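Our platform keeps sequence and structure together, in a single record for each protein. Because each token names a local backbone shape, the row as a whole describes the fold. One such record is reproduced below, unchanged from the form in which we store it:
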Amino acid sequence: MRPPLVWRTVPYLPLGLIAALGATLAYVVRLPCRAGGWNDQVSTYTNFCYTDIYPLYFDRALDTQNPYFAQVPFDKQVEYPVVLGEVMQVISWIARWLEIDKVAQAVRFYDLTVILLGISLVAGVLLMAAVAGPARRWDALWYAVSPAVVLAAYINWDLVAGALSMGMLLAWGRRRQVLAGVLLGLAIATKFYPLMFVGALFLLTWRTGRWRPFLITMGSAAGAWLVVNGPFMIFAWEGWRRFYVFSQERGVDWGSAWLFFQNKGWPILGEGDVSTLGMVALGVLCLGIAVLTLAAPRRPRLAQICFLALAAFMMTNKVWSPQFVLWLVPFAVLARPNWKPLALWQLAEVWYFAAIWLYLLSQPPLSRNDLGIGDDTYFTAVWGRIITIGIMMAFVVRDILRPDKDVVRQAGIDDQAGGVFDDARDRFTLTSR
């Protein structure tokens, strides 16, 4: 007989409180900017407190109009999928209702957004703990209070997608395919990166032959995505497509390895079309993940494949913003909860967080070389992230090829987030063919 719900929630209370502490620390980190530093770029960068939330209130006309329907130039439309756009709209309505002064509205918009993101962090941590299971519940502390998470938490709205992604993983693990699909569709309509989890589910479905749950989940995801996107596709086409046009046309940006290749003038890698090169590189990595999934001696865990797919997406992307660490932390920990490579990666992320703002100080229009750092120093931070994530990927691949090395499975667990994959028999493998 299962214990009452109230008793089942007790073990999660400390994690929720620690996650709330992490959310509070993330707010404190940005207090120098909230007190007026946002109006001075030098102050913003030297205090390491930049956020997109405050400036976009003005730059995307949220102080006067609604996202996607705004009568503004195309490049001033909100460049996010519709769930985030509507989150921004609702919070801007509240800010306008509470404050008359425009600057006060923007500060209120930031504060209200931070409350939502803090709740999203707490929810994401609790959901991650539930996914990890009783034996590894405390692994969620990496998501709650790791330095990189605290520093990056309120740069953008990524924590909303993080909570939806963890909810999707928990629903799938509890074999609630419709709910998992709905949450996946909403996550993709919030930030595009959860699309990579479709490939992970597909590969493990191919190996196990559990097609019905997969198709139910994909159908539910497509339905949820259409429900939230359809009205904007019909009534605000130009505003709706801004995100997709921006993603396609965006050039090489901060954090990407492609920026290094361009800066150093590498042949082909630094001179070719980055959209094509990035897609080819991602395709090669995904093909390798597919072969690994179908050829491994034992079926990989879902979190392992999700982590590898998401890491491949980030490493080959045209831009790698500091807040992207929020995407990867929960999946990295679920894939391989070993503190040494995780700590090394977190150090690299903290160094990158400092390096990007110091580098921007030395770039036009500020050109404050007395305060900032140069190209070579900045690119040590870029490659620090790539190398440390590559190390973690290598360990996950090792664990897949040698399941006895998998820390999670050493506890007698097959796949705590696998749902129908948990203890499933193989129906297709490359080695059997």
